[in-house]
Amino acid sequence: MSDRNSTALLKVDNLSVDFGEGTPQALSNISFSLGRDEILGIVGETGAGKSLLARSLLNLLPEGGRFTSGDIRLEGETVLGISEAEQRKIRGGRIALIGTNAKALLSPVETVGAQIARVLRAHRDCSQKEAWKAAVDLMVQVGIVNPERRAKAYPHELSGGMAQRIVIAMAMVAGPDVVLADDATLGLDATIQVQVLDLLVKRCRELGAGAVLITHDLGIVAHYCDRVAIMKEGRIVELEEVGKFLAAPKEQYGRALLDAARVRPTPMVAKVEDPVLEKQPETPLLDVRRLLKLFPIAGTPDVVRAIDDVSFSVKRGETLALVGESGSGKTTVGQCLVRLLDSDGGGITFDGADITTMPAAEFRAMRRRIQMVFQEPYVALNPRWPVKALIAEPLRLDPTLDRAATDKRVRQLIDLVQLPAGIAEVYPHQLTAGEQKRVGIARALATRPDFVVFDEPTTALDIRVRAQIIDLVRDLQAEMGMSALFITHDLNSVRSLAHRVAVMRYGKIVEEGDTEMIFSAAKEDYTKALLAAELPVEQGTAQRDRAETRRLAGAAV
Amino acid sequence: MTRFIRYVSRHPGAMVGLTLLALQIASILFAPWLTFYSPEEADPLMSLQPPSAAHWFGTDVSGMDIYTRIVYATRINLLISIVAVAFAFVVGVPIGLLIGFYRNWMSALVMRVFDFIQSFPVFVLGMALVSVMGQEIWNVAIVLAVLFIPMFARLIRAEVLSLRERPYVSAARCSGATDGSIMFRHILPNALTPAIVQVSISIGLAILLTAGLSFVGAGVRMPTPEWGLMVSTGAQQMILGVWWVALFPGLAIVISVLSFALLGDMVKDLSDPTTRERL
Fold this sequence. Notes:
The complex is a heterodimer. The longest helix of chain A is centred in the middle third of the chain and has 18 residues, at 190-207. In chain A, helix 9 packs across helix 22. In chain A, a hairpin with a 6-residue loop joins strand 1 (10-18) and strand 2 (25-34). Chain A has a domain at 2-262: P-loop containing nucleotide triphosphate hydrolases (Rossmann fold, 3-Layer(aba) Sandwich). By secondary structure, chain A is of the alpha/beta class. Chain B has one domain (65-273): MetI-like fold (Orthogonal Bundle). Chain B has helices at 2-10, 12-34, 66-101, 105-119, 122-133, 137-163, 167-174, 179-215, 227-238, 244-271, 273-276. In chain B, helix 8 packs parallel to helix 9. The radius of gyration of chain B is 22 Å and the shape is globular. Chain A binds chain B through residues 335, 338, 340, 364, 367-368, 371-372, 374-376, 379-384, 393-394, 396-397, 427, 429-430, 440, 443-444, 446, and chain B through 166-168, 170-178, 181, 186, 189-190, 273-274, 277.
């Protein structure tokens, strides 16, 4: 091991960064090294300084940032304090950065082929034509089908996964020594995420480059990384081989993260054992029959069949998870249930009444019983309303509540979702993502609904917050005995929350069954593919073998 | 209130804006005590005197004291502009809200009417309206208001078009909010900021348009003290080296427009909770 460290590809030594005199250190005393052919995972929650660290390695600190101590060495030579021209050679040439949200990283007014070619020409002496040809070759290497045509496409014509591949191709153009991937797969579907990461890791191996995967997903770390650094508040609190870390994290914080990332142990048992429920006649609370939703395609007589003949039902006290990748129509189903969209066919029966044909005024009264928790916590809260007004809004549906009763109920709800009482006067932008999510949940639960649609309740949340929200939802559901529809692509949370699972693809339900059954014995290939794309927080055999070989090799030298 | 004081103390622009506004208000309230001549009394013997101790800003071609007229003109100019813009705001904002929120043939029709109003050359419209209604101060205000209503309505409409698709509007609908509640409690407060900023810019524009209308003979008439009119009479003498007749009322326009622009920035910052606490 020590031998490898001495010839480290990238060595960061005691690096500290702050934003001006007297400000707290944004990064403090960061030290780590990265060898050739090694993949280091950097894990931490929002605000831990992960992205700042990535930018530091490229010497691209944000406005006002400055290095206060330490050094970054690339094959023994410092990269700090060298001329701007030399730095440019290193950036993209020897250290490449792959960022989040590839579509935003690509220029919208230039074809992707031209963009790759431009990067090529910046680092290699070749003609326009050669560069274009090389770009197409690179696109083949990153697994893009039909590269000649795709090269002439503009970024908005590509899917998220495709755009991410293009960005990877661009990063690999000059054959970098170090690849930094800053949450490179955030927001991609699980199956695409696995493909993109597989590709990234494969390309790094081929080039013999070292890679730093910055992520908040310990599943990614477990599957792809050799070593992991846990970051908290600008420091690395733990740096360990992945196998050892997963087996026994040394630090309290690492352990907390790991616990939160693991599947919550007991999948909720359906309340069928409840004698009251069992005696009830088998009329489902919500019954969706042959639901149809079409979206016209502008300028053509064609339509998109967003929901194509979907039927399912949810019993009282039951939770159904609707899983599928983006574009499968699962969110559209949720929106039809709360009548944010009108369906084009079929019926939705709620407690015996067909809500698709109900007049809007009549359905408004029904809204007390059917509520929805929105996906993105921040944008679903009016930025000009303080929390107490936000939570009080649905209470206006109950005309019997006077001002004092409303205030009291708001306080109860704030308490219910485990927020501090003082939060009532605060505006949404002052809250963390987790707190925003809780406010959204409090809003949905305000009227004590019988049925709640949760649209992606756990996406875009930090590991620990995600676990907290899952626990909260589970407790609340047990307490209030409501039925729920979970719309998600996070299979991990499905396991801990849902009694039954319905898998959607292209607007249809392809498979439905009890949660345990789907997870243990899925019938459809598509479901199997989804399950296979899930990255559990355990080291795969391949990784373990690699780690073993490394250790032996290290010992031998 | 403490937030307001803290904001002003940290933002010199707001301080300047408020000071200049105070100056204008003082001119409106205390004009007779701040000046030494009558604003509308000609003295042919004192025609075109350069600035001196007796006439601080000099005199114009009819021998009227320019300083006196500038102070008195504040009343006319601010009155016309503020009344016109306030009227346009009060009428234009709800129209914009409605035609942005409800997309039907009515809103399409309203938009075409706005196109019609705005495609008219300002001065042709101004002259036509003023010639029909008579050359009164109030008519100038009405002309300006008619011109500004489409501006505010379009501004609000554009905001509403994007805001009505926001998830928090869907969330409000799920919480049982009615159309009225969504429009006035959710969308309007978030849509107002550009319109509020536009108020101050419009007041400046109104001052300039008033001056322009006076210049083409469709605005207020001599000897009413009005900045634009004073600039236009002074412009004729500029080439003769008589610079003070046009310069000082011109400066008054600049100061007035500037003060409202600065106040617009202040209002914008103070009305937005996402910037408020950073102040």
